[in-house]
Amino acid sequence: MAAPQDDMFSLCVDPTKVSSCVEVRFIDKIKGKGLFAKKAIKKGDTIFIERPLVSAQFLWNSLYKYKGETEHILLPKIVEQKCSSMLSCEFCLRALETAEDNARRLSGIPDLSLPHPELCKVHPELHQACPQCQVMYCSNECRQAAADQYHRALCLGTSQEDPNHPISKLKDAWRSMHYPPETSSIMLMARMVATVKQAQDKGHWQKLFSQFCSRAANEEEEIAHKLLGEKFQGQLTVLRTLFTTALYDDHLNRWFTPEGFRSLFSLVGTNGQGIGTSSLSQWVHACDALALTSQQREQLDSFIDQLYKDVEKETGDFLNCEGSGLFLLQSACNHSCIPNAAASFPSNNFLLHLSALSDISPGEEIGISYLDCCQCDRSRHSRHKILRDNYLFICSCPKCVSQMDELDLTSDEEEEEEEEGGEAEGDDMEDEMTDV
């Protein structure tokens, strides 16, 4: 069941207090830690609900409406489609548009009216802005929570629109290197720094962040993160210089060294969990739960089907406010190509719900997929390439073991994608930054 909005402020960041049905265990030097069931978990059960230590909306996502994975090559068109209504709460990432406003913008139908508007959980009357820089929050509670944790160190005040402010320069540099589809954000790293800066107990937060894996290479397997090689040194140097100018703190001086910055970059790249929130999607799910007659259900389903067709025609399949966060308990879950659990965000905010995809026995490891649905269906060779490049390991899950005798070949579609990727390597390296 989705947690009420106010419940997220009672969730402790200490993962040992989040759930009594799981525990973190050390496995070995290769896999590190893992998450295991302490008692039987039934398929469909919510294993735990977790709030991130830090989270941030993707920078392009907060500014622009774009159509999908290939739209980033049409930058002039993106710029023409600038749209501030992709905005989410600066703290919890809750979508700030009502479901009806979201549907109108995405479908291009300005007078569209949604049936059952009472099912929309967005309350614009509760929204509040930071009095200094005017960034928006879904509630006074979120505004205060952000100010207490990190925002005072990052607030631009009256310089919010100043392109020469050090933080603005850092954001612009990141956008120039990391076009949509986005998978990470430099602001996740910035909020880590700001959180430690503001904390009275700085050691507590540093200890929490140190629990995330941050290695830039797997020496045992001789694997290095694809974005930390020599060909990206120029970009990393630029980002580190801007990052240092904007955020340097003596308590965290190691994070600003070349090696420390690489580790921090690797930390958010390998541990950041994608977060998607959508007031329209939440409204649709609420509609699915309505008790209706057969005729009413048919009419409502027909309306929703047509709405999605209109959205597809006008905007493509991009519906969410998107960002990423660092979840300490969820990050203990190892990858499996046949996962027994999956993360979702049904509360339309940053609260992660980990749910069981199958029955899980006491003592069984809880595994999630680091790959999306399409990637999971690819060949063992292709899955291993993605996991090696982005997560620095070679998968040995039951599915991969059962496919060990298969030839290291990809499908024609996969080969074509890899060929296109190879051609791109000869051009500017900017697009490669999208795979953080």
From TrEMBL:
GO biological process: methylation; negative regulation of gene expression, epigenetic; regulation of cell differentiation
Subcellular location: Cytoplasm
Any one GO CC term of the record: cytoplasm
Disordered: annotated segments: 407-436
Keywords assigned by UniProt, alphabetized: Cytoplasm, Metal-binding, Methyltransferase, S-adenosyl-L-methionine, Transferase, Zinc, Zinc-finger
Reaction equations catalysed: L-lysyl(20)-[histone H4] + 3 S-adenosyl-L-methionine = N(6),N(6),N(6)-trimethyl-L-lysyl(20)-[histone H4] + 3 S-adenosyl-L-homocysteine + 3 H(+); L-lysyl-[protein] + 3 S-adenosyl-L-methionine = N(6),N(6),N(6)-trimethyl-L-lysyl-[protein] + 3 S-adenosyl-L-homocysteine + 3 H(+); L-lysyl(36)-[histone H3] + 3 S-adenosyl-L-methionine = N(6),N(6),N(6)-trimethyl-L-lysyl(36)-[histone H3] + 3 S-adenosyl-L-homocysteine + 3 H(+)
Chain ranges of the SET domain: 20-371
EC number: 2.1.1.359, 2.1.1.372
InterPro entries registered for this protein in UniProt: SET_dom, SET_dom_sf, SMYD5_SET
MF (Gene Ontology): histone H3K36 trimethyltransferase activity; histone H4K20 trimethyltransferase activity; zinc ion binding
Main location: cytoplasm
CDD domains referenced in this protein's UniProt entry, alphabetically: SET_SMYD5
The protein, known as: Protein-lysine N-trimethyltransferase SMYD5
Lineage: Eukaryota, Metazoa, Chordata, Craniata, Vertebrata
Gene: LOC110537870
